[in-house]
Specification:
single chain; 6-stranded mixed beta sheet; about 325 residues; alpha+beta
């Protein structure tokens, strides 16, 4: 079995590169490459609680290959964890790939993930190949052993039960038409009570740079909220994170028809952070959340909880929006 090493920031492989790798391994297609990447993907996972690494490698409709891994956060309840399949779909969304065709994964998808995958258009046709220790040798070179999602979840409940056919689904283009409320609707919270220490470091004493950083975070969080998938609650939200170098990572809320498998905007932004090859979460110095004021489903308290656990000195700000 050929194993391919993935670097810490190699969560997306361009189509031409994937084709070259497959050719160099004498594989018939990029589809046959996916299971050969699973082991390396597992090494990129961050599960400090369970120490159970899960890797998922998927083929997008544009020919690119995407990687997903599981993330766990010490000090938080387990339901704040990110599953590898959730990471995978969010990775596609961040890179604007509109359809997942097939993926290989190191362990059979749990019920939580089978349900989350239902949010995709044509979800029942997504092909899945399980590469665990028991059937690794059998499946690694036999993509015909793939099974559609409909085999893993034969009697599904999903968007087709609750939404009109025309409603955008996960990975479809979204535009929630949100606008920010006036600035006096901002809620500013410093998780470490350090009097804006992190923003001050980012600005290096330059007031103009401070304001520019805040503006960038606010606008990025608004963009993420406008891309959110929240058809069941009507409460879209988005988060933007900024690291100590001024890089910004956006995350959009993604709902599930079954509610519980929904992925919060902070987790989605942390996926973008990890997928960019970043290391410790403590390098995150500032964060902004955009959501509707008085929404039935609110992210503010959960976002504060998660951010305080992963980056205690992070400056956290909340901006409210309304439908335009």
């Amino acid at each position: 079995m050929n194993q391919i090493h993935l670097s810490a920031n190699q969560f997306v492989i361009e189509a031409s590169v994937a084709e070259s790798i497959a050719e160099s391994l004498n594989l018939p297609s990029v589809l046959h490459l996916l299971p050969h990447l699973v082991h390396s993907a597992q090494a990129l996972a961050r599960p400090p609680i369970s120490n159970f690494n899960v890797g998922a490698v998927g083929l997008g409709s544009d020919g690119r290959v995407f990687v997903g891994v599981n993330l766990e956060f010490p000090g938080l309840p387990l339901h704040h964890s990110v599953h590898a399949e959730q990471f995978l779909l969010t990775n596609l969304a961040v890179h604007r790939c509109r359809r997942l065709l097939s993926f290989a994964v190191s362990s059979a998808p749990c019920g939580h993930c089978r349900q989350f995958l239902q949010e995709l258009r044509h979800s029942s046709s997504v092909q899945i190949l399980v590469i665990d220790e028991e059937n690794c040798a059998q499946n690694i070179d036999h993509v015909e052993n793939r099974k559609p999602l409909s085999k893993f979840l034969p009697n599904p409940f999903g968007p087709h039960d609750l939404l009109d056919h025309e409603c955008p689904l996960l990975l479809d283009q979204h535009d929630n038409r949100l606008d920010l409320l006036p600035q006096n609707h901002v809620n500013s919270i410093n998780l470490s009570n350090s009097n804006d220490e992190n923003f001050s470091k980012l600005a290096n004493g330059n007031c103009g740079k401070y304001e520019k950083s805040e503006d960038l975070l606010r606008e990025s969080a608004l963009e993420a909220a406008n891309n959110a998938h929240a058809p069941y609650s009507g409460c879209p939200s988005g988060v933007a994170l900024m690291d100590s170098e001024g890089n910004v990572y956006k995350g959009s809320y993604a709902e599930s028809a079954a509610y519980n498998p929904s992925l919060g905007p902070v987790q989605a932004a942390l996926i973008a952070y990890v997928a960019s090859g970043r290391g410790s979460y403590e390098s995150i110095v500032a964060a902004a959340l955009v959501e509707k004021e008085g929404a039935k489903v609110r992210q503010e308290d959960t976002a504060r909880l998660v951010l305080k656990a992963v980056s205690p000195k992070c400056d956290f700000r909340v901006f409210y929006c309304h439908s335009g």
